[in-house]
Amino acid sequence: MSQLRFQMGSSVDAQIKNINNFILARTGCHGQEYPGFLTLNQANRWMLTKPMGSVFVIYAKGKIRGKEYCHFLNAVRAVNMVYVDFQTNRGGRITGRGRSYPPYPGSLGPATSTAPFVGIITQETASGGSHLHAARQPGSFEPDTLSLRVSAFIKF
Which DSSP string corresponds to 78-137? Predict the structure, then answer.
């Protein structure tokens, strides 16, 4: 569950509900939540049934290099699913003391990948020179351990 439970809610269900309500209040888009947890393949299949441009809130839990992690991130329906995390866009962020962090490699935009991930990933660019990062990063979940909760926000 998120480390920000004091702000977001005391359970995963409460956090998803609060995120959905926040998005509804800001955009007018209702979330279509898939009930229960899904495997990565199941989640991708469900998300790919939504129109291009749909945005998803993903709660992911699983293992990375044998250790349990959980994390909220976003996904966008393109030709395939693109997982996005804006928290990793930390280049130039100002600290409490007025100093900025040094930029991370590839931190000019949000971290993106074709697989769910946690935290600052190495952000090695995928082949083809696009800004999409390679799927297997040090921060990528091990696919066979991954469980996802998904809410879809469809662009009309």
Answer: SSSEEEEEGGG--TT-B-TTSPBPPPPTTTTS-EEESS-B-SS---PBPTTS-SPBPS--
Q: CA triplet 18, 22, 27: central angle to 5 degrees?
A: 150
CA distances from 87 to 4, 52, 129, 154 (A): 13, 24, 23, 23
Residue 75 to residue 61: CA distance in whole angstroms = 15
pLDDT tens digit sequence for 63-83: 988 999 888 889 999 888 888
* Cα distance between residue 84 and residue 72, in whole Å: 10
Residues present in the chain in total: 156
Structure tokens at 117: 């991930």
Whether pTM > 0.70 for this model: the answer is yes
Q: Are 15 and 8 in contact (CB under 8 A)?
A: yes
pLDDT in tens, 2-16: 455 556 788 888 888
